[in-house]
């Protein structure tokens, strides 16, 4: 086990920068999710870490050992990095039995037969595949194949386990079971895990911290609740969780954590991004955005903010409405309500909380 | 303090050294290109040298003479026509066989594939001989039934279309084998997905299966075309009587003419054939590079598309084609080997095994030729597969400008007519510089020429299967700590084994009967089977030649049966005709 540090890593394919100046510090034993839309460079970043791609610039180190640094001409090959990888396509070898697939890392290290068999059995038992040891991987279902791939990582006691969208090929039910399996695995082994996904719910449910990527950049790296409550920029606010970002022009800053913004005819108390407070010029230049999550806004007939209901979904215990608001009716807010509402009905809204940040942050890059 | 900083400086240094040694194991692979270059490309370069040197000074005189001559361009056009048409025929026959056998539920697949391999094992000149004997007025078989054409009527095969037909039949197995190795790797899921999406019948074939298998289809087509382009046996046996010259026969006629300028002119003609072959292959690579249809997912479960009510009809057609292209010419060959004298009508009273007795027990050269050909072809097949696995890996996974060039150039020794390659080998190896030994007149020079000539046959199927493998399979092993050698041995070799075996078998079968290369390189005691048959036929002993040819076919069938019996112990898919 080891901590992982990436410093200003860049990787281009032709003119296209798939990974652009990415810096990451991952602590030993941490479960980090790499979240972003498809094509944003997640797989490339994972492959850089694993050593399948050589960075154009920047330094990667594992447990204090520099494994990639083009400037000093250092490039440790994947086979010397001792990282476990679970591929999206499983990458099991069809010509080997499940047991041999799992035991291959040990075979490569030249372990004795008895010790190998013992470890293979332990690993297969961990993923509940003990009875399948002698099968061919072609005879397994998707979830079972994924667990074999995980067991193969497990036996090599890697410094970290890298998983590239490991659940993307599985059905919803299996996905939940496997999520639990990954979490159990993480708790039991304490392994550092880097988990690539484009599914924010998956990332939020599993990770200690999430790095949100977009167009080769890391937009924000934080704990799931921080990402959700305090998104650093527009992309993160839109990508993580439901909600809406309203442009606001009138921000009166109370202190460096709170402020009051004018929404419609009412003043709303909200939290504000400390960086934004420091950069008052921007705050007053109409770059501010107010991020509202559904649980921040409730239907209240006395509410000064008015809007018309577009959609109403029963969630069990409460309703979620989509309410169109604003002078030009150009924003839709997801809102919770205790009662069903008619489509087109005019309702009042009460805003209890909000998050103010710089809408233009990161857009120039 | 100083110690610490020295230590810090020390660490990256260590790592650099390690990473360099890792990369140098990669570089080791590139050294493989050196013997490949020496054996396969240098002889051709040496021959090319003859074409641009006139009396020791560089000159384009030969180019001017040869390219300014109308007969050159006529022969080029004829070569393109016969090879092109022949390739289309190969593609139709071999392609439909491969698709039907690999993807549908036709019965007796093993028997079908087994029989389909046989035409390729019959040397081209024997194929031509048996077809001419079959269809001509003096046909032993047709005469036995009394249905031969009247004496003096023209032989229909003495024409461009006749040449193309036999080329097509001869090389259908090449398309078949390349495509089938490819089809084996088609994951069932991709076809099933298409069927679930509602694709059926023709749509399934045209929109899903054909595009997915197009790499194999294109590779097989290119190989069949290049083989047909350099074919001498068929174009000579059918073309010369019809006065229809192709580039290989033109070269042959030039060589027969002797004179001081022969080598130079042959060299220029050889370059012309080489250029056409390279164009064909370059086109093939262009087409392939546009389609990176790496087949994701599991391989291993074969497909069984149900043919339904049409199955008996399709099976009947398949067997009818086999009878036409295999059984009938083989019968003609057997009939000729049994007649008491060439041209005599065969019937149940006059058949005789005298020819077999003669070649088996009287002439010692037969056993010798069997032994020589066996050693040469097995040696070439084994050596080439061992070289091709790492070579194909370099070409597919570490492409560079150098490997791309080599990729094109290895095609040339195969595309050139065998005699041209033989001359090139003689020029280069008659006196090996530095070592000062001559390979001329030994089996060694034939062996080297075989390696040069058949490299590409072994290489293509393996390259094909490497380019189709999901790269994650190898990367997973790499992450497990397996170095290059281990990955080749544990992961890539077993996964490419079916293709490699198909390639080895192709090399073996082609080399076993090979004539045109060894025709110039043999010496007494070093004769190959092809040479033996040719010499017998050439000296008028057509019946003896047929007897040897029949025995060759029987021996090969026996060998194939041995493989069949051993197939249960071999890895899955190694024996190409096994399902
Ligand atoms: N080997 C490659 N050659 C060229 N472009 C590539 C290669 N690998 C990835 N890319 C490009 O880099 C971008 C990021 O790809 P990837 O890391 O796979 O995205 P993600 O995994 O986030 O979906 C994509 O635009 C992709 O087309
Ligand atoms: Mg990806």
UniProtKB/TrEMBL annotation, chain A:
Which top-level group of life is the source organism from?
A: Bacteria
Q: Would you indicate the residue range of the signal peptide?
A: none
Keyword vocabulary terms for this entry: ATP-binding, Cell membrane, Membrane, Nucleotide-binding, Translocase, Transport
A Gene Ontology cellular-component term: ATP-binding cassette (ABC) transporter complex, substrate-binding subunit-containing
Q: Show the Pfam families listed in the entry.
A: ABC_tran (PF00005), TOBE_2 (PF08402)
One GO MF annotation is: ATP hydrolysis activity
> Locate the ABC transporter domain: which residues?
4-240
Q: What family does this belong to?
A: Belongs to the ABC transporter superfamily.
Listed name of the protein: Spermidine/putrescine ABC transporter ATP-binding protein
Automatic annotation (TrEMBL), chain B:
Where the record annotates domain ABC transmembrane type-1, the positions are 76-284, 370-561
- Please state where this protein is localized: Cell inner membrane; Cell membrane
Which InterPro entries does this chain map to? MetI-like, MetI-like_sf
UniProt keyword list: Cell inner membrane, Cell membrane, Membrane, Transmembrane, Transmembrane helix, Transport
Query: What Pfam families does the record tag this protein with?
Result: BPD_transp_1
**What topology does the record note for this protein and the membrane?**
Multi-pass membrane protein
Cite a GO CC annotation: plasma membrane
Give the transmembrane region(s). 28-49, 80-103, 110-132, 163-183, 268-288, 316-342, 374-396, 408-432, 438-459, 495-523, 543-563
GO BP terms, alphabetized: transmembrane transport
Q: Which coarse location class describes where this protein primarily resides?
A: membrane
Keyword match Protein transport? no
Q: What family, per the record?
A: Belongs to the binding-protein-dependent transport system permease family.
PANTHER family in UniProt:
FE(3+)-TRANSPORT SYSTEM PERMEASE PROTEIN FBPB 2, INNER MEMBRANE ABC TRANSPORTER PERMEASE PROTEIN YDCV
**UniProt name for this protein:** ABC transporter permease
* Organism for this UniProt entry: Thalassospira lohafexi
């Amino acid at each position: 086990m080891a901590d992982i540090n990436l410093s200003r890593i860049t990787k281009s394919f032709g003119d296209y920068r798939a990974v652009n100046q990415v810096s990451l510090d991952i602590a030993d034993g941490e479960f980090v999710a790499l979240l972003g839309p498809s094509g944003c460079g997640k797989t490339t970043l994972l492959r850089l870490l694993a050593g399948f791609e050589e960075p154009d610039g920047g330094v990667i180190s594992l447990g204090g050992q520099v494994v990639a640094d083009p400037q000093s001409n250092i490039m440790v090959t994947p086979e010397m990095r001792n990282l476990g990888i679970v591929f999206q396509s499983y990458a099991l070898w069809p010509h080997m039995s499940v047991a041999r697939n799992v035991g291959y890392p040990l075979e490569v290290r030249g372990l004795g037969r008895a010790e190998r068999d013992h470890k293979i059995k332990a690993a297969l038992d961990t993923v509940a595949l003990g009875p399948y040891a002698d099968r061919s991987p072609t005879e397994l279902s998707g979830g079972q194949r994924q667990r074999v791939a995980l067991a193969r990582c497990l036996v090599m006691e890697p410094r970290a386990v890298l998983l590239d969208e490991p659940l993307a090929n599985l059905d919803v039910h299996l996905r939940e079971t496997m999520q639990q399996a990954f979490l159990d695995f993480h708790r039991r082994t304490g392994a550092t895990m880097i988990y690539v996904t484009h599914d924010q719910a998956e990332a939020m449910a599993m990770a200690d911290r999430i790095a949100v990527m977009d167009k080769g950049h890391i937009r924000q790296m934080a704990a799931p609740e921080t990402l959700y409550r305090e998104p650093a920029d527009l992309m993160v606010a839109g990508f993580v969780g439901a909600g809406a970002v309203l442009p606001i022009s009138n921000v009166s800053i109370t202190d460096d954590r709170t402020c009051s913004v004018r929404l419609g005819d009412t003043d709303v108390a909200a939290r504000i991004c400390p960086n934004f407070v420091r950069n008052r010029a921007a705050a007053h230049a109409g770059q501010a955005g107010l991020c509202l999550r559904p649980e921040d806004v409730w239907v209240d007939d006395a509410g000064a903010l008015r809007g018309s209901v577009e959609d109403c979904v029963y969630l069990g215990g409460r309703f979620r409405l989509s309410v169109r608001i604003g002078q030009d009716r150009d924003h839709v807010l997801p809102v919770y309500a205790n009662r069903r509402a008619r489509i087109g009905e005019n309702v009042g809204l009460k805003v209890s909380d909000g998050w103010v940040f710089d809408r233009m942050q990161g857009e120039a890059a | 303090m100083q110690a610490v900083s020295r230590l810090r400086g020390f660490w990256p240094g260590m790592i650099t050294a390690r990473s360099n040694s890792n990369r140098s194991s990669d570089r080791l692979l590139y050294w493989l290109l050196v013997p490949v270059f020496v054996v396969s490309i240098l002889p051709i370069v040496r021959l090319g040298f003859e074409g641009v040197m006139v009396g020791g000074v560089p000159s384009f005189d030969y180019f001017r003479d040869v390219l300014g001559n109308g007969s050159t361009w006529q022969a080029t056009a004829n070569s393109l026509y016969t090879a092109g048409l022949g390739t289309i025929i190969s593609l139709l026959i071999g392609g439909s066989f491969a698709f039907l056998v690999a993807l549908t539920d036709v019965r007796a697949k093993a028997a079908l594939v087994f029989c389909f391999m046989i035409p390729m094992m019959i040397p081209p000149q024997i194929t031509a001989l048996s077809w001419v004997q079959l269809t001509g007025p003096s046909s032993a078989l047709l005469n036995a039934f009394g249905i031969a054409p009247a004496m003096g009527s023209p032989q229909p095969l003495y024409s461009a279309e006749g040449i193309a037909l036999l080329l097509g039949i001869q090389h259908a197995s090449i398309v078949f084998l390349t495509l089938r190795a490819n089809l084996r790797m088609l994951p069932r899921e991709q076809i099933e997905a298409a069927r679930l999406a509602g694709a059926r019948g023709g749509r399934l074939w045209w929109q899903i299966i054909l595009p997915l298998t197009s790499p194999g289809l294109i590779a097989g087509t290119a190989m069949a075309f290049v083989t047909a382009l350099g074919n001498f046996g068929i174009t000579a046996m059918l073309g010369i009587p019809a006065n229809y010259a192709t580039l290989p026969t033109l070269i042959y006629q030039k060589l027969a003419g002797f004179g001081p300028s022969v080598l130079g002119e042959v060299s220029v003609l050889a370059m012309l054939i080489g250029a056409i072959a390279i164009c064909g292959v370059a086109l093939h690579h262009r087409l392939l590079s546009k389609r990176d249809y790496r087949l994701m997912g599991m391989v291993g479960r074969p497909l069984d598309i149900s043919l339904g009510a049409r199955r008996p009809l399709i099976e009947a057609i398949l067997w009818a084609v086999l009878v036409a292209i295999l059984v009938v010419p083989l019968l003609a060959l057997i009939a000729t080997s049994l007649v008491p004298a060439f041209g005599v009508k065969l019937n149940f009273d006059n058949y005789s095994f005298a020819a077999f007795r003669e070649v088996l027990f009287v002439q010692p050269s037969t056993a010798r030729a069997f032994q020589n050909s066996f050693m040469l072809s097995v040696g070439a097949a084994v050596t080439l597969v061992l070289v091709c696995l790492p070579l194909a890996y370099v070409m597919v996974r570490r492409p560079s400008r150098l490997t791309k060039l080599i990729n094109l150039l290895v095609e040339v020794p195969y595309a050139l007519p065998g005699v041209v390659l033989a001359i090139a080998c003689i020029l280069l190896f008659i006196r090996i510089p530095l070592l000062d030994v001559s390979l001329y007149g030994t089996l060694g020079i034939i062996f080297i020429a075989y390696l040069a000539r058949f490299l590409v046959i072994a290489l293509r199927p393996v390259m094909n299967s490497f380019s189709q493998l999901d790269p994650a399979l190898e990367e997973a092993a790499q992450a497990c700590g397996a170095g290059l050698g281990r990955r080749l041995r544990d992961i890539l070799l077993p996964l490419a084994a079916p293709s490699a075996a198909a390639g080895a078998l192709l090399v073996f079968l082609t080399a076993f009967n090979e004539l045109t290369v060894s025709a110039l390189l043999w010496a007494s005691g070093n004769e190959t089977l092809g040479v033996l048959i040719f010499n017998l036929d050439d000296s008028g002993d057509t019946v003896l030649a047929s007897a040897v040819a029949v025995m060759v076919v029987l021996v090969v069938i026996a060998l194939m049966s041995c493989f069949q019996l051993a197939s249960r112990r071999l890895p899955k898919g190694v024996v190409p005709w096994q399902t």
